[in-house]
Fold these 3 entries.
Entry 1:
Amino acid sequence: MKIAMIGTGYVGLVSGVCFSDFGHDVVCVDKDPRKIEMLEAGKVPIYEPGLDVLMAKNVEAGRLSFTLDLQQAIDGADAVFIAVGTPTRRGDGHADLTYVMAAAEEIARAAKDYVVVVTKSTVPVGTNAQVRDVVAKANPDLDFDVASNPEFLREGAAIDDFMKPDRVVVGVETERAAKVMEDIYRPLYLRDFPIMTTDLQSAEMIKYAANAFLATKITFINEIAALCERVGADVKQVSKGMGLDGRIGNKFLHAGPGYGGSCFPKDTKALARIGQDNASPVSLVETVIKVNEDVKRRMIEKLMDLCSGSFNGKRVAVLGVTFKPNTDDMRDAPSLTIVPALIGGGAEVRVCDPQGRREGEHLLPGVSWYEDPYSAAAEADLVVFLTEWNEFRALDLPRMAQGMRGRRMADLRNIYSADAAREAGFTAYDSIGRSGFSE
């Protein structure tokens, strides 16, 4: 099969590389000359473990290439995937479909033979029907079908998720399109991974419903954590007890400073807006969005308490600013709410993150960047664990405490226990949903 992938962002690049590893001939297209130049030089513009090696392997095998030329990429393609951004539109919460529709029109003008136009981007219900109309209007003589193929990739584990998926969802209108998509995903069919073929609208809704449910689980346990702090319960034990129930499961029940990233904030807002527009409000999701913002603000209050009511003149070491470990993605990360509040309150903020600096330097102006956590925490009044990178899970806590002047810890990912912090020499400790201490 020949595949054209429009967009070399996170979803497009990972999908294109993995499709080429299936044995397909894949051409990835982007309008950004800088990105294409990087990719042709073998450099990956995003951080995703293992992606650079897999990309190099398939480029060398001749199955994967990159271009600015859409016409060249589409020529002879069996399917063209749209994997462009759908950011939240300013002012109304809708997903911005400008890039999707522009790509659809360009595909229509460039295509000559039968092709399946596949939407990989996360789009509201009804978008693929709009794509069909745009393509038909731009090129009335074109023989084509549309398909919806939402992605379910976890940043930091995207390659494994693509190669060993929980499920693949394909929305189509015709048997012909279904057959093309079946051929594309044949390597997964042969290994009996679940592949669900449905109508366009259901495929679109599955993506939003899944992400909204996961965001709800995270928000629920964060509210339970706040209650645990008041009644003396331990949220880690509560989460474990809940997760042992097979109907609930243990995933996404880890209390923390609120969800962030490229999917949950954007998709919950879009789903809430879809409900409002269709006179069927998704009230639970609307509440989840509000509570998640409240959780981030509650984290600021925790840090304020550890700083005796004022950030002014305090030196704070923040360990981790990406929204989760094993990615350089900072979109809607809790750090983008918490760190500016520290700086705005007069704190000197030092940051250490294994991959966050590239994006963080312009998103978090006014902070100092450090290569290791001990240097960041030197002479600090407070150390804050904000992202649970593996590099932060086995630190020499006595060494860290000894180098600090304040010896206070805010463990917003529940990496360490209160006992471990006390034994290391910290004089104050707080976490999420567990008892802390102060002296």
Entry 2:
Amino acid sequence: MSDLERIENEYPELNFWGIEVKNPKYHGHVEGNDVYINLLQPDIDWLKTALHETVHYDFDSSNLSNQEDRKTMIAEGWARKESERRYMELFGKAN
């Protein structure tokens, strides 16, 4: 089982999709039960993005598309820290 499959098994209610977005700042996003991961990012980024988006799925219910909104910045910062914790819990690897 791949590392990404381990994450998918933790969230059977989610559908994980690989998409190609030619923007180096785009890593992924979640819409409802669909998680989109940019396949043009490095493999390790796929795992971190998948976990980051599961944090949003678990805890955020509002629109976070405005990256300049304070609420969005707070949610993104917290999701980044929580996804790092989940990464260490699942894989025990240093980032």
Entry 3:
Amino acid sequence: MGRVLVVEDELAIAELIALHLRHEGHQPRMAASAAEALAAVTEQLPDLVILDWMLPGDPGTTLLQRWRQDPRTKSLPVIMLTARVQESDKIRGLDAGADDYLTKPFSPGELMARVRALLRRRAPEALEAPLHIGSLRLDPAARRVYHLETELHLGPTEFRLLRYMMSHPERVHTRAQLLDKVWGDHVFIEERTVDVHIKRLRDALAPAGCAELIETVRGSGYRLSQSAPG
């Protein structure tokens, strides 16, 4: 199955998560601080990270932002697991680069479902042809997006979101449909999450003048226009 790094300073919680991961066939490794997590990822890149926000030393959000700025770890799937339950905290966690956000106290069964969903999305896409809309090109095999010859830097969730919308241009997608198709039908997150990642996707496309491709259809959802610049 997968190598999962559990970054959690409360030993009882870390051991509980590790127990359930082993039961599912995963190989858990534990880190109790940001420094330990950095060392673990440097030594061996995991398939997924379960990350607490409040850690000794640097907070989880700072660690996550550092990973997202490193080409080696920018696509590393991360589930943020934290006691911070305010909507503003969830938005900060997602904006920092988390692929999913789960609050404590949590259901181990739900956490494992989210782990499965994220790992499923790491399935190889090497046989898929690149997608083009105007001068915007998405390469599923390389997991890269280009405008003309310039690479645009997208987070892993924004990449999957753009890939799905480029595969179905001009179609209006509700938030529920995007959650199902991009996040997976076993992930239990709020529809508000879609809005956060749409904003992040637009921000990533903005340097190429392509942010307007992602249109908001009031009362319905979102649509990707084929009227690409250039």
